[in-house]
């Protein structure tokens, strides 16, 4: 059973050309799928429909075998990492990472929250920064806090929307390695939007190419980028 199944997914804003046009794709459990394509081709829209921030005009979306078209984002068991991190500036690193757990208040004791946050922070080497505020962190550290917030949810899948595009080249390289290691260790299904060919080649099991809302090609990075 696929972790995420898209069946004839369409998104129509107003009465223009569909932003996402009849996209079908099976994403296997534990698979890392990269979504690439020119600006405006529908990458963000597709990601936002999967996570539930955008209504689906037509088609079926299944997560873990369950149809979720009408399921609220918080009940989809997905974790999204945005380009701009979307951290809460007034909260410490600890509280930023704990935030999704506190949303499900009755589920976790304070002790469990502490354990989960500290485990995620250790994975991301943020253990020494838990009491800091985002303003006092580097770009790479902020990025890791955003990922920590995704990790603690123990989500069915991670969704990344150009998570490294605001970082300089050196940090991007480090974070690429970090994400790759994390994914191998955790084996979590991942959909990752990027403009960066290096990220597409090094991180993905498969690369899906979107153009004007249409899925053009889905192939291994090798087949896609090393063909003559
Ligand atoms: P990408 O992420 O690949 O840059 P988007 O998914 O942001 O592309 O956009 C796909 C298309 O849908 C673009 O033509 C964009 O202008 C349009 N679009 C995106 N969001 C909206 C919206 N909220 N309302 C109307 N049109 C939108
Ligand atoms: P990106 O290139 O990262 O997708 P955009 O600048 O295209 O970013 O879009 C930023 C936000 O604006 C998104 O939330 C998108 O849904 C929205 N948006 C994009 N195009 C339009 C549009 N034509 N009308 C209304 N909202 C839009």
UniProtKB/TrEMBL annotation:
GO process annotations (BP): carbohydrate transport
Highest taxon, organism lineage: Bacteria
A cellular component term, taken from the record's GO annotations: ATP-binding cassette (ABC) transporter complex, substrate-binding subunit-containing
GO molecular function: ABC-type transporter activity; ATP binding; ATP hydrolysis activity
Protein biosynthesis keyword on record: no
Domain ABC transporter as annotated: residue spans: 4-228
Keywords recorded for this protein, A-Z: ATP-binding, Cell membrane, Membrane, Nucleotide-binding, Translocase, Transport
Record carries keyword Signal: no
Coiled coil region boundaries: none
Protein name: Sn-glycerol-3-phosphate ABC transporter ATP-binding protein UgpC
Organism expressing this protein natively: Nakamurella leprariae
Taxonomic lineage from the root: Bacteria, Bacillati, Actinomycetota, Actinomycetes, Nakamurellales
């Amino acid at each position: 059973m696929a972790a995420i199944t898209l069946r004839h997914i369409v998104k129509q804003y107003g009465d223009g050309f569909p932003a996402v046009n009849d996209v079908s794709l099976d994403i296997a459990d534990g698979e890392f799928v990269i979504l690439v394509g020119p600006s405006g081709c529908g990458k963000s829209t597709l990601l936002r429909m999967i996570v539930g921030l955008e209504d689906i005009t037509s088609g079926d979306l299944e997560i873990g075998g369950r149809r979720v078209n009408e399921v609220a984002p918080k009940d989809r068991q997905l974790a999204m990492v945005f380009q701009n991190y979307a951290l809460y500036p007034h909260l410490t690193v600890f509280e930023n990472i704990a935030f999704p757990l506190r949303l499900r208040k009755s589920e976790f004791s304070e002790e469990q929250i502490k354990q989960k946050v500290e485990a995620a922070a250790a994975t991301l080497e943020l253990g020494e920064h838990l009491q800091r505020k985002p303003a006092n962190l580097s770009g790479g550290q902020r990025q890791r806090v955003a990922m920590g917030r995704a990790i603690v949810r123990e989500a069915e899948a991670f969704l990344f929307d150009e998570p490294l595009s605001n970082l300089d080249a050196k940090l991007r390289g480090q974070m690429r390695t970090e994400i790759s290691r994390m994914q191998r260790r955790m084996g979590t299904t991942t959909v990752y939007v990027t403009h960066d060919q290096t990220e597409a080649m090094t991180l993905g099991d498969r690369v899906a190419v979107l153009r004007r809302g249409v899925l053009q090609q889905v192939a291994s990075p090798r087949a896609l980028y090393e063909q003559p």
